[in-house]
Amino acid sequence: MNLFSKKMPGIMMVLVSLFYSVSAMSQSAEELARTAQNPVASMISLPFQNNTNFNFGPGEDTQNVLNIQPVIPFSMGENWNLITRTIIPVISQPGFTPEQGRKNGLGDIQLSTFISPKEVGASGWIWGAGLVAQFDTATNDRLGAGAFGLGPSAVLLKPFGPWMVGALINNIWSVSTDRNDVNMFLLQPFINYNFPDKPGRYLTFAPIITANWEADSGNVWTVPLGLGIGQVTRFGKQPVNMQASAYYNVKKPDFGADWQLRLQLQLMFPK
Predict the structure, then answer these.
(1) 97 pLDDT exceeds 90?
(2) Among residues 260, 197, 195, which one has the least CA distance to residue 230?
(3) 20 to 30 Å CA-CA from 62: which of 159, 198, 231, 253?
(4) Which of 139, 141, 136, 85 is nearest to 115 (CA)?
């Protein structure tokens, strides 16, 4: 093997990095913001979403969940993309009794896959459909459901001028479990307004509404209401999407959090 061959992997990495850097610089902040608001966009990204839940549990303590959410698209021929979205939760959970201490560790990982057309149809609607899987990866029983689950997942959205409107929906049923059965519903509507005179800046409404169908009657739903603001900018040549939101739970189960502060930093790698 000659010296040039030995250097090929490093040379290829440099070329790939330069390609992504040039592509990122060629896109405006407004274009990047709209791409970031599309869950089935054909763009590699790495969001770090930190959720701090206040007045959680019987002791009204603070729970923190850092979701690491890599999004990786794959081309499936000329007409279709496969979008994968993984949620890796790192949790800091307070005790529910005086004898229990705080537990820190990994929660149950979720993997969502969406098949989505590459081209937007004449109607302007963008969609994706697929499956969501939940894995029993929690490092402690208090940080996960103790079950492997599976279910359908779908997303639908459309731009209307400066607005981006859509929703993501899924439901997970336990396929195998070490403890209780799982039947969890999630609906995340999202409405984003992109400021025409401030490229890359937007208002966002994206509450995560959940229902635990296995819970006692009256303790099924968590329904947050709130608002956030986001800005797409660059750290050097690296495009990033920064966001801050606050949500109050108008409906919640017993010992659920009263409200949530959500902070997100998303690294974007456009083609």
Answers:
(1) no
(2) 195
(3) 231
(4) 85
